[in-house]
TrEMBL record:
It is a multi-pass membrane protein. This is DUF4870 domain-containing protein. It comes from the Bacteria. Keywords: Membrane, Transmembrane, Transmembrane helix. It comes from Oscillatoriales cyanobacterium SpSt-418. The keyword Transmembrane applies. Its main location: membrane. It is found in: Membrane.
């Protein structure tokens, strides 16, 4: 068994960043498959933690997007106009923060604030 210091740092950066960056192609529902595949195929515990956290973030973004869509339907488009910028900052801002964190601190898993973690 490898100790945490013996894992390939470049591979760790690539896979951890890939898990979190997959949210940027979230218009495709299959984007959640990227961190799921990384979780299934990687042996690195930090990469697995980052992939699990990215899966949880995907689930949160989908749920909050659905809630915003329902509110938009019920308010004839008013709610997305008011809440859309906040959702955009939440969605893209936190994902960008995670990517930067994974590139800067590859030995520490990123934890998103303000999400629930079913996985």
């Amino acid at each position: 068994m490898q100790t945490p210091n013996t894992y390939d740092t470049d591979k760790r950066k690539l896979l951890s960043t890939g898990s979190h960056a997959s949210i940027f192609i979230s218009a495709l529902v299959v984007s959640i498959g990227i961190p799921i595949a990384i979780l299934a195929l990687s042996n690195d515990p930090v990469v697995k933690d980052n992939a699990r956290e990215a899966i949880n973030f995907h689930i949160n973004v989908m749920i909050y997007g659905a809630i915003l869509g329902v509110l938009g339907f019920l308010t004839f488009g008013l709610a997305p106009w008011l809440l859309g910028p906040l959702w955009f900052l939440y969605h893209w801002g936190l994902a960008l923060w995670a990517v930067v964190h994974c590139l800067g601190k590859p030995d520490q898993p990123f934890r998103y604030p303000f999400i629930f973690r079913p996985v």
